[in-house]
Amino acid sequence: MAPSISRASALLTAAVLTLLFAATPITCWRPWPHLNPNSSDLLYDSSKKFEGSSEFVHLRYHMGPVLTGNITVHTIWYGRWQKSQKKIIREFINSISAVHARRPSVAGWWRTVQLYTDQTGANISHTVQLGQEKNDRFYSHGKSLTRLSIQSVIRSAVTAKSKPLPINPRNGLYLLLTSDDVYVQDFCGQVCGFHYFTFPSIVGYTLPYAWVGNSAKQCPGVCAYPFAVPEFRPGWKALKSPNGDVGVEGMISVIAHEIAELATNPLVNAWYAGQDPSAPVEIADLCEGIYGTGGGGSYTGQMLTDHDGATYNMNGIRRKFLVQWIWNHLVSYCTGPNALDQ
After folding, report:
1. For residue range 152-196, what is the model confidence (pLDDT) as tens digits?
2. CA-CA distances (angstroms) from residue 204 to 112, 136, 164, 167?
3. Torsional sign, CA 248, 253, 257, 262
4. Does position 257 have pLDDT exceeding 80, yes or no?
5. Cβ atoms within 10 A of the Cβ of 306, count?
6. Where are the beta strands (DSSP E) in 206-265?
7. Rounded to an integer, what distance in angstroms lies between the CA atom of residue 338 and that of residue 119?
8. What distance lies between CA 209 and its chain's CA centroid?
9. Contact (CB, 8 A) for 175 and 75
10. C-beta atoms surrounding 302 within 10 Å
């Protein structure tokens, strides 16, 4: 019996992988290299048609679980990271539940995520906290990762002989962050980050996870936009970042994007639009590139300017951040922190 069970499991895993890795990426607005400089995509790409209208959006609940318990984010630092970079990212995650931060706040932004419920009517948790961390300074799986080998990195982190990350399938999120010298499959050309869940055949458990890369050396004009602009857009001007690290600044919005979608669609069977669960359009995808009122297409929307000229749109505990808005299913348009920041 064992060989036949193993073969069936392998075939099932192969089928799932085919669906996952052959899926067409979601088209949301960033200054991707493939966009025609003279195309109307620059003004009326997918973000534009979604903003402020339910005509194009059919976000539905597919009866899967969402994260209603206190959410713990376990971080894997892959590659070499500066202490200052880790501090910026940690402070952003800690700010998600910081209800006393100055408005508009990261916590106010998270309240839109909290509007989503499971089939019992329970809301997404208001508590997001940092969990344990694992450092992989020596690139144990190399400097070039595939979508599949990312799961192997997570397996190494949760099965390590020394201080493994805890196993928490119900309310744990596993955040793999790669340094600026690590290449990841489809990075810069199609994605700046993504989320899914681990396969028991690889990791031993089904764990919701996200990967986000530091684009500073590879494609800051794409994944750290608008704090950097691509070379093929010579007329565009980069904005000043609030925390002085363009690569990490770009990661913050992508991390926010992925955590929001992990909370509402951790096993890819809860909240999403579209008919294909292997390529779901989720609550942050619907608002890609929108950071303020009036945003859509290549226009980021109205943002705030700090005393030193830096651009941001929400406050954390001690820092300011620029984070994209997310889809509010109750009103059917993208909302930021001001709408629910009370």
Report:
1. 999 999 999 999 999 999 999 999 999 999 999 999 998 999 999
2. 33, 20, 14, 10
3. positive
4. yes
5. 11
6. 208-213
7. 28
8. 10
9. yes
10. 12
